[in-house]
């Protein structure tokens, strides 16, 4: 079943104004959250300079997505989404206060408490992302989904641009125990704007009782009813297994391999995010795509070539600047995978079951990450972090080849658009 929203029934009088208030809130609250996230990772990088520690931190950040996502979808489908977003932001702010107090009482943060804080931030994110993704198709017309997913991607990319640059500056002049309190400011901003937003409530269309196990099985079965989308999901799981270790090693690649500074690590993140912003801008401007699988597949190859090439660079100043350029190109290609796939999923199912499907989807897409990270930390310490980039790049290219050789995956959007067109007649 595909989704075609009715805005007269949803009660949204001015949907454009409504969605732009929502996006503005995501932009403003996201900046503070990302600054805190970067600060914690940079703190671990400078204190330990260990690939293993960064791997553990990344694993803790992914475990909630893997373990909880299949079970939170039913709650999301049956809950007030605006309230759910506010509550999860409040949890992040509360733990930021705890961590800040602990850092003020001691000369350094207890490592276990840093890990607990990262874990709780990930728990909140596990609820927030599928909530946003399941709410979006109820707030914009179906033919605008790809474009507004692109604009949401632009918002997130802008956060990634501003947060590393501003975060690196603040990290150098503000004690981290005070910097962490930006999460409280982010909560106040985000909650205030969410109170102005109308998010249609589809919970009445769902069964009232929450059965976590049954909801997870339901979401898995629904996802598997579309073989092409199911195969794309499994390939995405493989991609996460091979590529996620690379994502966690960026600060160490800059500081250890290129002998750079935290400021230079921030530059790498900014350039990556600028690339994502331009990629998202193209998607946000272009309303209609004939076949969204084409840019999605190309994105796999671009990421593979640029990230794999980064692992072959010399650890020199020139190598570092080439590394920055390659990551800008890689960042440009990422939205063409994330945004296109998300829009196709949103058009493939009705909104009252989308939370359960997104929960299972998010878990499957993340499950390979910790497995790869368990081996990547010690392996990076042994063979060099740059070789992890080479492995991740080769893996991305292999994922692109797999989709090309699976017709149901390669043709998924064409088949989906045919189904949509047939339902409109």
Automatic annotation (TrEMBL):
Query: Does the record bear Protein biosynthesis in its keywords?
Result: no
Where does it primarily localize? membrane
**GO cellular component terms given for this protein:** plasma membrane
Q: Which Gene3D superfamilies match?
A: MFS general substrate transporter like domains (1.20.1250.20)
Please list the GO terms describing molecular function.
Answer: transmembrane transporter activity
SUPFAM superfamilies in alphabetical order: MFS general substrate transporter (SSF103473)
Matching PROSITE patterns: MFS
Location in the cell reads: Cell membrane
Query: Organism's domain of life?
Result: Bacteria
Per the record, a Pfam family? MFS_1
Q: Does the UniProt entry include the keyword Transport?
A: yes
Q: Which residues form a coiled coil?
A: none
Q: How does it sit in the membrane?
A: Multi-pass membrane protein
Q: Mind telling me what this protein is named?
A: Major facilitator superfamily protein
Give the classification, highest ranks. Bacteria, Bacillati, Bacillota, Bacilli, Lactobacillales
């Amino acid at each position: 079943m595909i989704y075609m929203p009715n805005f007269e029934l949803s009660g949204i009088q001015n949907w454009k104004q409504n969605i732009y208030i929502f996006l503005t809130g995501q932009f403003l609250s996201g900046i503070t959250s990302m600054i805190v996230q970067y600060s914690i990772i940079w703190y671990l990088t400078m204190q330990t300079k260990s690939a293993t520690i960064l791997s553990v931190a990344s694993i803790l950040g992914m475990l909630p997505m893997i373990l909880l996502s299949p079970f939170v979808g039913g709650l999301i489908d049956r809950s007030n989404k605006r309230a759910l977003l506010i509550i999860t932001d409040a949890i992040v702010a509360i733990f930021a206060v705890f961590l800040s107090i602990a850092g003020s009482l001691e000369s350094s943060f207890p490592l276990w408490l840093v890990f607990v804080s990262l874990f709780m931030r990930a728990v909140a994110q596990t609820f927030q992302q599928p909530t946003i993704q399941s709410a979006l198709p109820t707030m914009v017309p179906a033919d605008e989904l790809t474009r507004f997913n692109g604009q949401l991607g632009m918002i997130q990319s802008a956060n990634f641009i501003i947060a590393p640059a501003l975060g690196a500056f603040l990290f150098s002049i503000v004690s981290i125990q005070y910097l962490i309190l930006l999460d409280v400011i982010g909560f106040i901003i985000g909650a205030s704007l969410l109170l102005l937003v109308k998010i249609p409530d589809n919970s009445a269309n769902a069964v009232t009782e929450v059965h976590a196990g049954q909801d997870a099985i339901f979401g898995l079965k629904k996802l598997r009813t579309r073989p092409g989308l199911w195969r794309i999901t499994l390939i995405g799981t493989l991609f996460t297994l091979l590529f996620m270790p690379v994502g966690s090693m960026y600060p160490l690649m800059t500081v250890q391999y290129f002998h750079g500074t935290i400021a230079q690590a921030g530059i790498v993140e900014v350039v990556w995010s600028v690339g994502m912003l331009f990629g998202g801008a193209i998607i946000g401007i272009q309303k209609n795509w004939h076949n969204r699988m084409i840019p999605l597949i190309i994105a796999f190859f671009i990421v593979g070539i640029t990230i794999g090439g980064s692992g072959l660079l010399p650890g020199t100043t020139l190598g570092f600047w080439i590394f920055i350029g390659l990551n800008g190109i890689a960042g440009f290609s990422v939205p063409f995978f994330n945004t296109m796939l998300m829009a196709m999923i949103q058009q493939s199912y009705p909104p009252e079951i989308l939370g359960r499907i997104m929960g299972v989807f998010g878990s499957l897409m993340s499950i390979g990450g910790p497995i790869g990270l368990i081996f990547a930390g010690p392996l990076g310490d042994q063979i060099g972090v740059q070789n992890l980039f080479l492995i991740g790049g080769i893996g991305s290219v292999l994922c692109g080849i797999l989709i090309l050789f699976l017709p149901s995956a390669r043709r998924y959007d064409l088949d989906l658009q045919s189904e949509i067109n047939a339902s409109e007649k």
